[in-house]
Write a structure and sequence with these properties.
By secondary structure, the chain is mostly beta strands. About 10% of the residues lie in helices and about 35% in strands.
């Protein structure tokens, strides 16, 4: 009897990136998101806790946050269904969580159908996946890099200039004596060490007044994407500028630490 040829199954697709050196497409907009999300693909199975209506559904995450994920799968569970979650990172030991289906999406293209899952157990997905970006670095959602840059802000009724001591993919603090009200949308001009200028968009999220002028300034959140032309910047132009910004930060992260 002829031997049956065994075909090895292909490994689960996995994003190959260092969490500290994000690619532009690895960053997902934080707008209307409570938790920072990363593109991260993990084979995942949901098992209903109700044994009378037992179901097991397997799919792949398209993104994960510390407290939830979106599971791509053509099969669905009803909203509010409580589930046991088994995540199987490629070449790693599976781990178990508990969660709940909070929304179902069956209207997209077939390859994007799926469910939004929230974690109800106290576990951190980032801890379980052993991503170095969690947990302490999530207090600032993106790692900050020491870098002193000149910055100019242009708003509808005010302009100011200052400098920053560190920057992140999402934003930075600007040392300046003149302040702009919180929630003001601004055009940001970062002057790089080589004199090149990067134009970004963002908004003022908080301000700090102090008798010590060195501590005065404001926190600015950088928009991660742009859906329509704003302040004379088109979405295509903004994508190019933001890519240059991310690449600049990555170039700083790749530099060896100074010798003590």
């Amino acid at each position: 009897m002829a031997k049956t040829k065994q075909v090895k199954s292909s490994p689960a697709p996995e994003y190959n990136f260092s969490p500290e050196l994000l690619k532009v497409n690895d960053i997902i907009s934080l707008a209307q998101r409570r938790y920072f999300r990363l593109n991260y693909v993990v084979r995942t199975t949901l098992i209903t806790l109700d044994k009378r209506n037992y179901k097991a559904i397997t799919g792949y995450t398209s993104n994960v946050s510390d407290r939830g994920f979106y599971l791509i799968t053509p099969n669905f569970l009803a909203e509010n269904t409580k589930v046991k979650i088994i995540m199987r990172p490629y070449a790693r030991t599976p781990f178990h969580l508990e969660g709940e289906v909070i929304w179902v999406n069956d209207t997209w293209q077939p390859e994007n159908k799926g469910m939004g899952i929230i974690i109800t157990s106290p576990d951190s997905i980032f801890d379980m996946l052993n991503l170095s970006i969690a947990p302490q670095k999530l207090r600032r959602q993106f790692l900050r890099v020491d870098c002193k840059l000149k910055v100019k802000l242009a708003a509808e009724k005010a302009n100011l200039a200052g400098y920053t001591n560190n920057i992140s993919y999402q934003g930075f603090f600007i040392h300046c004596t003149k302040l702009i009200p919180e929630l003001t949308q601004v055009k940001i001009f970062l002057i790089l060490p080589d004199g090149k200028e990067i134009a970004l968009l963002g908004s003022v999220v908080w301000t700090r007044q102090s008798q010590d002028k060195k501590n005065c300034g404001l926190g600015v959140c950088v928009f991660l994407d742009l859906q329509e032309t704003t302040m004379d910047i088109t979405p295509a132009q903004y994508k190019k500028s933001f890519k240059a910004y991310v690449n600049f930060i990555n170039s700083l992260l790749k530099k060896p630490a100074p010798k003590k």
